[in-house]
Amino acid sequence: MRGLITILLMISCTVFCQTGDQYESVRNRMVDDQIAGRGISDQATLMAMRKVPRHLFVPASYVKEAYSDRPLPIGYSQTISQPFIVAYMTELSRPAKGKKALEIGTGSGYQAAVLAEIVDTVYTIEIVPELAKEAAARLKVLGYQNIVAKYGDGYKGWPGHGPFDIIIVTAAADHIPQPLKDQLAEGGRLVMPVGNPATVQELILLIKKKGRITEQRLEHVFFVPLKRLK
Ligand code: SAH
């Protein structure tokens, strides 16, 4: 009897484990070619990018392009970032177990999921109510119990839950909001595109050490604008 059960379990695994994620090999190729191949070396980041099913974060009409080397529309004039940019911002934030992260601009929820594979808790805020609702539902179905998502204006951060070891802003503005700098923990890192939201921006990395903030300017990037609630 026990043998029969073992065989049945093996069969169901061959059926379900393989068909469970038919995009696994495409996803691994994406990581090898677009991410590791372009210099991302943080093992935790690479592991997370290999794991999160990006095709479940894009609209049905874009599933086939989910692993391609570009941003994709997610509705409401917003986009899910190019995989490399997600990996790059994740690596810059130095994610690790034990850390607490804040993301401004939940969008599809993909960046939040990538962070949540590594850090303890991710707080994420989205200003488009429909996207906030969709992303929260998606993250729940996918079983991300360590992501706390809400609708709102992320400019002010999430004061009740700070300070944060990591703050990632996935929308562009001409300056870094002061409340986000204030909510950065000692030793914390903030990554945000800063520049002209209508054209090109620079990715900025802020690091807080002994209460003082240092700034590094990195790659040129294109993000949708950070909006404000009136
Ligand atoms: N990180 C997302 C991509 C985000 S695109 C992902 O992984 O899919 C940028 C998002 O920021 C958009 O969804 C936009 O609506 C949102 N956004 C813009 N301004 C915001 C603000 N002030 N607060 C919170 N979200 C904002």
The residue fraction in helices comes out at: 25-40%
The main sheet orders its strands as 5-4-3-6-7-8-9
Bound molecules: S-adenosyl-L-homocysteine
SSE order, one letter for each helix or strand: HHHEEHEHEHEEHEEE
Sheet having the most strands: 7 strands, mixed
Q: What is the tally of helical segments? A: 7
- Mean pLDDT across the residues is 93
Strand percent estimate = 25-35%
Q: Which spans have pLDDT < 50 for at least 5 consecutive residues?
A: 6-19
Helix/strand-derived class? Answer: alpha/beta
- Distance between the first and last residues' Cα: 67 Å
Overall number of strands: 9
What would the keywords be for this entry?
binds S-adenosyl-L-homocysteine; 230 residues; 9 strands; single chain
Can you offer a commentary on this structure?
There is one protein chain. With 230 residues, the chain is of the alpha/beta class. Helices cover 32% and strands 26% of the residues. The protein has seven helices and nine strands, in the order H-H-H-E-E-H-E-H-E-H-E-E-H-E-E-E. The strands form two sheets. A seven-stranded mixed β-sheet has the order 5-4-3-6-7-8-9. The chain has a two-stranded antiparallel sheet with strand order 1-2. The N and C termini lie far apart (67 Å). The model is unreliable at 6-19 (pLDDT under 50). Bound molecules: S-adenosyl-L-homocysteine. S-adenosyl-L-homocysteine (SAH) binds at residues 78-81, 104-105, 107-108, 110-111, 125-128, 131, 153-155, 170-171, 224, 226-228.
